Write the structure tokens for this entry.
Amino acid sequence: MRFLITGGAGFIGHNVVRQLEQLDHECFIIDSATDYGFVPKDELSYLISARKNRIRSSVHYLDLRDHSKVETIFKTFGHTCDAVIHLASFPRQKVVNQNPIWGSEVMSTALVKLLELTKISRIPKFVYISSSMVYGDFTDDVREDTVCNPQGQYGIMKLMGEHLVKDYHRRGCFDYTIIRPSAVYGELDVEDRVVSKFMLSAMRGQTLKVNGAGETLDFTYVEDAARGIMQAALSGNANNNTYNITKSHSYSLLDAAQLAVKIAGKGNIEVRNKDTDFPSRGALNIDAARKDFGFDPKVDVEEGFQRYHNWFKGDPFWQSKI
């Protein structure tokens, strides 16, 4: 099969591409390689190069807001593709809060352009990567039919994107699959993310700042998340459905910080008040993904954190930063 993948050179995206390539599928990649206003220049340059070295597919670096260039890519490759996998997005709520207009241009306006081009190109399937943030506050075992009550513009725009995708299907344009991941972490992520910050701070012997000791996340190792996205993209059973793709196990921020300190053998912890910009979250139920396309996440938090630590220790770029 042939896939047009936006954000295909990103953290999750390049892992999806790697796994598709291992099954001999062909990928055409659009990626902006943006710093989102917070990734240091040297880190971004390193990540772009290191991620590209792990995949065979060519990457077309362009901004999704440049609609004419996006249209050219679709005109060149779209008519041959079996599906679009749309991973390109602003990465989290804090970045959208700092740049809400830019965020809307990428997460909303650019999405509508992609949906229009998918329709015009007669591509039969659109896979939309949403977020667990669409649920708002939730505890464990939340299912896909739970009423969504997002808090903040990031979750609101992700949920709006889901409705836009479904409306194109309602109009007979193409099939869709919606994926809701949660707290994805692992090799070649940016430093300014919770697990990366915990692990690197511990390895440097610094203070890990925990915003709410009792707050939990459904931490998901990147290879598991990518595998679930790939399986959903390949499965006809996933057509016109929404799926949680997570480890399905809640783990407190305090426990995560303590685990990072234990693995690194140094560091200390400061517990602060909960960040009110973020909803309280637990574990997501993944029964539907297990049933429909055999999703079975393998890496628990303890193993995933250890893998991440070992990778940091063996990576020259990060060793120079530690």
Observations:
- The two ends are 42 Å apart (CA to CA).
- The chain has a mean pLDDT of 96.
- Residues 75 and 134 are 33 Å apart (CA to CA).
